[in-house]
């Protein structure tokens, strides 16, 4: 039995979206501890984990969490790139990657919104 069939996920794309948001949540909690505990990173980490849970359980509110994450994540990523671009290559690459992947997964989840139960 495939792992996605035991969960409530029917498509590989939705499974990848769920894993993306879960990994981002974990990585943001690690960044939260390493960056002297700025509250906006903890909020972003929490929202990512809530979105991953909602996608995993196919909740209709998961789409709203993903949309909220798109706006919050895009704002924080763009601001970080604006302020700190060129100071740390790893942060620059990470923020650009997060910004692009957030756009991609937001569009994917929005296109599959009918798959989420009410």
Fold and architecture overview:
- The structure is a single chain.
- This protein has 118 residues and is mostly helical.
- It contains 5 helices and no strands.
- The chain has one domain.
- Helix 2 runs antiparallel to helix 5 (89-111) and helix 3 packs antiparallel against helix 4 (61-84).
- The chain is elongated.
- The fraction of residues assigned to DSSP E strands is under 5%
Q: Nearest-angstrom radius of gyration?
A: 15 Å
Tally of structural domains: 1
Major β-sheet, in short? none
* Number of helical regions: 5
N-to-C terminal Cα separation, in Å? 26 Å
Percent helix range: over 70%
3D shape: elongated
Order of helices and strands: HHHHH
Low-confidence stretches: none
- Per DSSP E runs of 2 or more residues, the count of β-strands stands at 0
How are the elements arranged and paired?
Layout lengths: L2 H4 L5 H23 L4 H18 L4 H24 L4 H23 L7
Considering the chains and any ligands shown, give keywords for the structure:
single chain; 118 residues
Summarize the structure.
By secondary structure, the protein is mainly α.
């Amino acid at each position: 039995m495939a792992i996605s069939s035991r969960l409530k996920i029917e498509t590989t794309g939705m499974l990848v979206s769920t894993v993306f948001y879960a990994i981002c949540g974990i990585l943001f909690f690690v960044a939260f501890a390493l960056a002297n505990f700025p509250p906006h990173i903890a909020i972003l980490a929490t929202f990512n984990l809530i979105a991953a849970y909602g996608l995993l359980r196919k909740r209709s509110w998961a789409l709203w969490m993903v949309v909220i994450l798109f706006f919050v994540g895009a704002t924080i990523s763009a601001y970080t790139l604006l302020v700190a671009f060129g100071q740390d290559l790893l942060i620059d690459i990470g923020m650009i990657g997060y910004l692009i992947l957030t756009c991609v997964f937001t569009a994917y989840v929005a296109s599959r919104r009918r798959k989420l139960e009410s």
